[in-house]
Amino acid sequence: MTSRPPFPEVSALSIGGFVRDDTPTPEVDRREAVLASLAGTVRELVDAAIRTTVDDGEVHRIRDDLAGLVDRLRASQLPGPAGVRFNGEMRAWNWGNAVVGAANAIAPPLEVVHDASGCHADVVLGAAYEGPPGLVHGGVSAMLLDHIMGVTASAMRRTTFTGTLTMRYRRGTPLGPLRLEASIAREEGRKVFVVASIADADGVTVEADGIFIEPAGLRIDPQEQTSA
Ligand SMILES: CCCCCCCCCC(=O)SCCNC(=O)CCNC(=O)[C@H](O)C(C)(C)COP(=O)(O)OP(=O)(O)OC[C@H]1O[C@@H](n2cnc3c(N)ncnc32)[C@H](O)[C@@H]1OP(=O)(O)O
């Protein structure tokens, strides 16, 4: 069986932590699919580990097997977090992102869809996201909303950071299928005011509003970088 070489190391220019990386889009897509496949299985592992009732000896044997797999992955590693990269076609990838990272088994992952009014995402949260019994952890709700609100504020044309995020937990959010929605309420200079919600089949469980700010001078312009 042949194996492909590791994803290429590239010379990179950095803008506010965002890294210009000229890996061609098809290669990015290919590697992303490979890592997403691994993350999907690790996500299954996390759920299985939480819910297992196998005996202690079996747990110890599985732990030892997993330690061997960790060693194999550690054979070649990035020196730090995956970061956010983009190429000249503005194909961006943030494989370690806590909410949408394709390679991150901690991320649900959220698949954010842009629509006429902002963004939405349908997600199914399982045992790994529990806070109160059977309910989503409040911090997880905030994390997911923060992300979809940030994407909404950025509107695929600017980068914004969360300045202030306010949550209203109306009732418990059950684990299972959920829908997130976010839209821009108004803009004032570099400040973008965003509203958002999480809903289950019976309606809204969490509401949020936030102020997202476009830091002065933070722009991603690949043309500028190429000619620099
Ligand atoms: C395309 C990719 C999309 C990815 C989406 C990912 C979503 C994920 C979102 C996140 O998790 S971001 C990470 C969490 N947030 C941070 O780490 C932000 C840390 N804080 C900062 O970097 C800066 O404080 C910040 C960019 C928020 C503001 O710095 P600035 O130097 O640009 O603000 P400045 O002091 O110039 O103020 C500009 C305006 O914003 C207002 N402002 C500043 N900080 C604020 C704040 N924290 N909350 C509300 N308003 C704020 C400030 O009053 C002023 O209002 P006016 O124009 O009306 O005078």
TrEMBL record:
Molecular function (Gene Ontology), one example: hydrolase activity
Enzyme Commission no: 3.1.2.2
Catalyses which reaction(s): dodecanoyl-CoA + H2O = dodecanoate + CoA + H(+); (5Z,8Z,11Z,14Z)-eicosatetraenoyl-CoA + H2O = (5Z,8Z,11Z,14Z)-eicosatetraenoate + CoA + H(+); octanoyl-CoA + H2O = octanoate + CoA + H(+); hexadecanoyl-CoA + H2O = hexadecanoate + CoA + H(+)
Top-rank taxon: Bacteria
A cellular component annotation (GO) from this entry: cytoplasm
GO biological process: fatty acid metabolic process
Domain Thioesterase per the UniProt entry, residue ranges: 134-206
Keyword terms, alphabetized: Apoptosis, Cell membrane, Cell projection, Cytoplasm, Fatty acid metabolism, Hydrolase, Lipid metabolism, Membrane, Transit peptide
Main location per the UniProt record: membrane
Enzyme class: hydrolase
Location(s) in or outside the cell: Cell projection, Ruffle membrane; Cytoplasm; Membrane
InterPro entries: HotDog_dom_sf, THEM4/THEM5_acyl-CoA_thioest, Thioestr_dom
Record membrane topology: Peripheral membrane protein
CDD domains: PaaI_thioesterase
Sequence similarity: Belongs to the THEM4/THEM5 thioesterase family.
Protein name: Acyl-coenzyme A thioesterase THEM4
Lineage: Bacteria, Bacillati, Actinomycetota, Actinomycetes, Streptosporangiales
